[in-house]
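As a warm-up, study this chain.
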Amino acid sequence: MRRKSFGNLQCPIARSLERVGEWWSILILRDAFLGATRFEQFQKSLDIAPNMLTRRLKALVDSGLMKRRRYSARPPRHEYVLTARGRDFRPVLFALMAWGNRHFAPEGASVQLIDTKTGAAVEPILVDQANGRPIRGPDYALAPGPAAPPRTQRRYADRNRARKGGEAR
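Now compare it with the structure written out below.
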């Protein structure tokens, strides 16, 4: 059964999931950040079937997150390297790791983000680039952007009316 495509939706979350929403894709990106570039490296690390790895790598290349680069002419061999778009996924991986450590690792963190100068564990947070403040709670909210279709505008208008009316949503 074929899954529904989110590629044509105007929601940035849905469009992003279209590119990386399959768990193998995120794990391949994780391994690429750890230095893997070759098919065999990804396969060994992930213990993934070759046909599945081939499909996932192709999808990541087609989405512009990785590029395929020849490293041997005889025999012809390629490696997979992150593009600028792929490297921009790094904070998402850090956030997912921190969330997983916080909520799904009762035994403690098996991987953590550290400050390379001090070796101290750090907790990634999302901050407002303009003022450096953490993006938390009621000080920040989602709102329709300039390209939002009428349906999105209505959804957020309804939520904002409910919020102002005291309803919890």
